[in-house]
Amino acid sequence: MNPILSVKGVSKTYASGQRALEPVDLEINKGEIFALLGPNGAGKTTLISIICGIVTPSSGTITVMGHDALRETRAARMRIGLVPQELSVDMFETVLATVRYSRRLFGHPGHDAHIEQVLRDLSLWDKRNAKIKDLSGGMKRRVLIAKALSHEPDILFLDEPTAGVDVALRRDMWKLVHRLREKGTTIILTTHYIEEAEEMADRVGVIDKGKIILVEEKTELMKKLGKRQMLIALQEPMDAVPGDLAEWHLELADEGHTLRYVFDAQAERTGIPSLLRKLAELGVGFKDLETSKSSLEDIFVDLVEHREQAA
Ligand SMILES: Nc1ncnc2c1ncn2[C@@H]1O[C@H](COP(=O)(O)OP(=O)(O)OP(=O)(O)O)[C@@H](O)[C@H]1O
Ligand SMILES: [Mg+2]
């Protein structure tokens, strides 16, 4: 399939000397919801800002629906809607005037029916004549979304759409995203919230220290989520896992004091009872057993920590 957006070798070093992005390659398919997950300062906003033409990359190329985004900036930008992380609106304008202005900016005249629909979808219609400065924080975020949707973009970027918003707005946002996707809009969002990526995304990319360290279908990640591990604290440390235990693919941890068994919690047979019987048979004594779920969060922390150790 032809990607709707293609990023190749895009890197960024800011004028301050701050290296924000190592060369990134990423392809986004039409109609998918892609979540970019990463800690503070990972480079999420930098990457999005480059794709949207707000920040100039230090290297690389970007293609948006067949347009070279760095050369045919306007043609590429017309296809894109951006909901920025930071508020960026004229506080003294009204909601309606602000959203209309955005639409005209992209060369679309009039079409108030579309604007009315967007404002209604975001529960902003009743507030259309209010000045933005008089709205609550959550309402201001809704205005940013309305602005981004004003020119009917094919690709919508949401940079931390639900940071600091209440549960109701978060749910509304999720619903809106699903509705947009049904209409064929491609959505790329950044988030710190693993729950949000789980709820919304078709694919998840993890970014850390300017590098994309994983891109995977969410369902694949969910399979990993279904994995659990059992830690067996041994009475006597071991040098190696006994050959008789080969079928469980155990790992030794904690300098031989702990055996680790990873199993699929959703499987009919976890292999635990037979493993425990075998340990008894071999006379391997243990002090404690502990099982835990490996969540997307663990996978994430694991990845980030491994990278820190390697660095
Ligand atoms: N205009 C700028 N000038 C210099 N350095 C910058 C600039 N913008 C961002 N940076 C730096 O680039 C790195 C990546 O920042 P970026 O805002 O892209 O991260 P982020 O993943 O969006 O973080 P957050 O989750 O906090 O929004 C950080 O180290 C940041 O300090
Ligand atoms: Mg950011």
Automatic annotation (TrEMBL):
Source species, domain of life: Bacteria
Q: Which SMART domains match?
A: AAA
Gene3D superfamilies assigned to the protein according to its UniProt record, in alphabetical order = P-loop containing nucleotide triphosphate hydrolases (3.40.50.300)
Is Nucleotide-binding set as a keyword in this record?
yes
Check the record and name the PROSITE patterns matching this protein: ABC_TRANSPORTER_1, ABC_TRANSPORTER_2
Q: Which InterPro entries is this protein grouped with?
A: AAA+_ATPase, ABC_transporter-like_ATP-bd, ABC_transporter-like_CS, ABC_transporter_ATP-binding, P-loop_NTPase
Say yes or no: keyword Nucleotide-binding present: yes
Could you tell me the keywords of this UniProt record? ATP-binding, Nucleotide-binding, Transport
Question: GO MF terms on file?
Answer: ATP binding
Give every ABC transporter domain span: 5-234
Matches recorded under CDD domains: ABC_subfamily_A
What the entry lists under PANTHER family is as follows: ABC TRANSPORTER ATP-BINDING PROTEIN
The protein in question is named ABC transporter ATP-binding protein
Query: What species is this protein from?
Result: Sphingomonas immobilis
